[in-house]
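Wed. Picked up where I left off yesterday with CHAP domain-containing protein. The coffee machine is broken again, so keeping this brief.
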Amino acid sequence: MSSELQNMIDLLKSQLGYGEQGGGYTKYGDWYGKTVEFDSDYSAQPWCDMLLSWTAHKLGYEKWFGQFAFTPNHARWFVDHDAWGHDPEPGAVVFYDWSGSGTVDGIDHVGMVISADDDGTIHTIEGNVDGGYVREKTRDQTYVVGYGYPDKIKTAMQGQGAHTEKTSLTDAKSLTLIAAETPLTLTGVPSGQTAHQPGPGAAGALLLVALLLVVACLRVTRLSTRLAHVMTGPHRRDAASPERARHAVSRRTP
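Structure written out below (tokens, as returned):
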């Protein structure tokens, strides 16, 4: 388990004992509605996954942990990122289906694993349990659908970032060589006049322009990646989405 996920567990432990207020209000739902969905309805909705989203946000881990209220969508996000499995491990996100269907569509609760025993017993921190509180729980595998592995996504994203940086540096070196090796010539010099040959300063200016173009391209690439994450991010949904319909689900979990 990475130090980042240990930080998440530590922050979750600091929330133990927090409970719903009147009407089912929680600070996690209030934050989610104001920050992620811009919808005040979330302030009094089932909040097990919003607790995890709030924790990731507080630590700056949203990109590789996800921001969700609807638990099946969070599970699908892990599946889509090739970070889904059935082995319990500390720092994994555990998804439950209390009906026992064992399907992603049936998932209706989530928590974070803090430790796992050899016999499959897991020790977790979960929100919206025991009457609407944040608690530590000990469970077997009976209702577990699967596990999401945030560390796997984080590692993959770090690898993609390193590849982008390496590619940009390679492009910069290539442009530098081209600029250095390309001769500068002038055409249309009137007869009888001597063409002025540009000195080292001209080549240096061309090199500077090439490097500035590389930097600009890199910034555009990063901005495009961020915009794509926002526009297709896990928190986006329309008014008729399953997440809306899911608000009718039972508020209490074992």
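Quick read: Residues 1-185+201-254 form a domain with the endopeptidase fold (from Nostoc punctiforme) fold (CATH 3.90.1720).
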